[in-house]
Amino acid sequence: MVPLAGGNDAGGSIRIPASWTGLIGLKPTQGIITGDGSSIGAVNFAETKTMQDTNSLFESMLNPSKASQVPAAPTDLKGMTIAYTTKSPVGTPVSDDAVQAVQNAVSFLKSQGFNMVEVDSPVDGVKLMQTYFMSATSSGSTANFLINQKTKSNMTFDQVSPVTWALYQASLKLPANARTTYTNELALIDQQMTAFHQKYPLYLTPTTATTAPSNDDPAFLPEYVDQLKNIGSLDSPQQLQLIYDAWLHGLTKTPFTQLANFAGEPAISLPTYVSPSSGMPLGIQLEAGKNQDRLLLKMGDLFESHGLFKELSHQTPTPTPTPTPVNPTPNTPSSSSSSAISVSTSSSTPKSPVTPNYASTQPFIAYTLKKVYLYNQPTLLKMVGLRFIAKHLARIDQCSK
Hints:
By secondary structure, this protein is of the alpha+beta class. The chain has twelve helices and eight strands. The chain has two domains: 269 residues, Amidase signature (AS) enzymes (Alpha-Beta Complex); 57 residues, no CATH class. Strand 4, helix 3 and strand 5 form a beta-alpha-beta unit. Helix 4 crosses helix 5 and helix 5 runs antiparallel to helix 8. The longest helix is centred in the middle third of the chain and has 27 residues. It is globular. The chain starts with a strand and ends with a helix. This is 6-aminohexanoate-cyclic-dimer hydrolase.
């Protein structure tokens, strides 16, 4: 539909959708994009379709005062050592598709003269995620502040999602040393990754552990809803453990992206794989040391120039007939697409205009007049879920041209 789509990434929110929709997703180094802060947090960039667009956008968004900190990529990449793994940093399963995506990349990079070394995660992934969720309690506190500003009272469970409620409740009981715990963990990760990149300039993993989940697969399992609702009765360690446990169902699919955020490092998801069984895409992720963004961009160029970016099978252009809209009769409610006027096959009977089924060819907007929880709305999920987006994005693009 468009060449690029802006986004921000505080834990994978650019790279994960890119992996699941066959796009390029770059998370730049923390603090080098104009407008971004240097403290660990969200980084702004975009999802793109080509490396040319990715490179152009990066150069245009790079903060001029930080440009000198971002060196050019080496002229010759041959002989560079790249670490890789297909193991989840939190010990959760990794799909055969994700493993195959990395193995394909490893074989290609070996053929290009890179030294490939299989390693385990350089940091404790479980500890990282525990710290990640502890820091996320600030978003619950912020949500309550905004609600209080508007309503003059604190949030209630029914006003927000169960996780937002849980994060707010957990923010009320954080120990006094929580900030120190957080900064110490960031310092340890920085130390570990600095040492890691001295040996391995690049770190290759799957971007996601699975292809896009089905539309009715919730971010967290419904049985945790009541537990999250009553989280206020627990002490702080129990609260943080419950949040981790409740989110583990979703984290299992996306355990690889958070490290780059907490390390402040650049990472890029490249669309190099489509599952032969499901036809769904899955990206590989390359992570580099701080300010080595141009090295990642050059690696993206390498994969793209060798024809390794995979289009979805349904991205193959197919002729699309141009529908002829019917002028509706005044004061007559429009009918649904299932009640389209049929076309007579008799040569003696004039053909009636066909009411086009816009639902099959046009993008749509779904909206609600009241708050809904997507985890228990399978019908709505089937309409707007990730699988719909992945399957129809390119076709809609063709229809809009």
